[in-house]
Specification:
Number of domains: 1
Radius of gyration: 20 Å
CATH topology: Rossmann fold
Bound molecules: S-adenosylmethionine
CATH class: Alpha Beta
CATH superfamily: Vaccinia Virus protein VP39
Strand content: 15-25%
Structural class: alpha/beta
Number of helices: 8
Number of strands: 13
C-alpha cells in the first residue's frame, strides 16, 4: 500500500504533472487556483481554510449530512477497512480516515472527481486509495470491508438492485446507505403476501415504491429511480440486510442478515435462475 502519497501522486492541475509534495507550501490564492483548476466540485472540503465547493446548492455539503450520521461510526475506527462506493471527491473517505480507519478505498466512475479526491487526500496527508471503478464491478474487488458506504448513488443507477446485490457482497460489518427520497416519508407495515385482487395497496402512497424518471430530474439525466421511504427500506431488507440504525431520513445503517441462501449470494442465484 502506498504510504507516501505526497511523493507519488501527480498534480492533475499541472501540465508537467509535478508531484504534490509542494502543496503544503502554496498560499490560499494559489490553493484556490489549484482547486478551481480541478473543475466544479460536488464535495465541499475544507483544505486549510479553502473551501472546494463554497457555493453548493445544498449548502455545506456533505458536511451537513455528515453531522447527522457521524455518530453511527465509532470515534476511533481502530484500523477498520472502508470501501466508499461513488466516493466523489472523497469527503466521507477522508472523514473516516481521520477517525483512524485503516485501508480506505474510494471508487468512482468520474476521473474528475477522482482527481479531486486524490488532491484533497494528498493535501491533508492522508493515505487513501482512489480507483476508477463502477459500482457494477465492486464484486471484483478482493475481500470484504468493515464499512461499506453506498451514499448518494442508488438513484443514479439504471440497475439499482443489481448494484445493491453486488455491494452487499463486500460488506463484512456494516453498510451505510443513503439515497434521495421522494414521496411518502412513512414506513409501511409490509405483509408476507397480497391477494391478486388487492389493488388498493397501489393507491396507498406509503406502499413501497420507486419513481421512475424517464427523462431528467433536477436537470440530471442520471436520476433514474427515486424511492419513497418504504421502498428504500424494502429494497434493503430484500437484499438480505437488517436495518440497525436510521440516523437521518435518507440514511440507513445495515448489517448482512440473510444475504446468502445455502451458501450462495442472492445475486448469483438470481442470475442463474435459482432464486
Ligand atoms: C451524488 S454523488 C454522491 C457522492 C458521495 N457518495 C456522497 O454521498 O456525497 C454520486 C457519485 O456517484 C458517482 N457514480 C455515478 N455512477 C456511478 C457508478 N456506476 N459507479 C460508481 N460511481 C458512480 C458519480 O460520479 C458521483 O461521484
Amino acid at each position: 500500500m502506498n504510504t507516501n502519497l505526497q511523493n507519488t501522486v501527480s498534480d492533475p492541475t499541472s501540465d508537467d504533472a509535478q508531484p504534490l509534495a509542494s502543496l503544503q507550501h502554496v498560499n490560499a490564492i494559489e490553493l484556490t487556483q489549484k482547486v478551481e483548476a480541478l473543475g466544479d466540485w460536488f464535495h465541499n472540503i475544507d483544505l486549510d481554510g479553502v473551501s472546494t465547493a463554497p457555493n453548493h446548492f445544498l449548502g455545506d455539503y456533505p458536511n451537513i449530512k455528515w453531522k447527522q450520521i457521524s455518530s453511527v461510526f465509532p470515534a476511533d475506527l481502530k484500523g477498520a477497512s472502508v470501501l466508499d462506493v461513488g466516493c466523489n471527491a472523497g469527503f466521507y473517505s477522508i472523514a473516516l480516515k481521520q477517525r483512524g480507519a485503516g485501508r480506505v478505498l474510494g471508487v468512482d466512475v468520474d476521473t474528475r472527481y477522482l482527481d479531486q479526491a486524490r488532491f484533497a487526500a494528498s493535501f491533508l496527508h492522508l493515505d487513501i486509495e482512489f480507483q476508477k471503478c463502477t459500482v457494477y464491478e465492486v464484486d471484483s474487488i478482493a475481500g470484504q470491508f468493515d464499512y461499506v458506504l453506498f451514499m448518494g448513488l442508488f438513484y443514479h443507477l439504471r440497475y439499482p438492485l443489481l448494484a445493491l446485490d453486488k455491494v452487499v457482497k463486500k460488506v463484512s460489518g456494516q453498510l451505510v446507505f443513503q439515497t434521495m427520497l421522494r414521496g411518502s416519508k412513512h414506513a409501511y407495515p409490509v405483509k408476507p403476501n397480497y391477494d391478486f385482487w388487492n389493488k388498493k395497496i397501489f393507491t396507498d402512497p406509503d406502499f413501497p415504491a420507486a419513481y421512475f424518471i424517464e427523462n431528467s430530474y433536477s436537470n440530471d439525466q442520471t436520476n433514474w429511480f427515486i424511492p419513497n421511504r418504504s421502498g428504500a427500506e424494502g429494497m434493503l431488507r430484500s437484499a438480505g440486510l437488517q436495518i440497525v440504525a436510521h440516523p437521518e431520513p435518507e440514511t440507513w445503517v445495515c448489517e448482512p442478515k440473510s444475504v446468502q441462501r445455502d451458501g450462495r449470494y442472492i445475486l448469483d442465484m438470481e442470475l442463474d435462475g435459482t432464486l
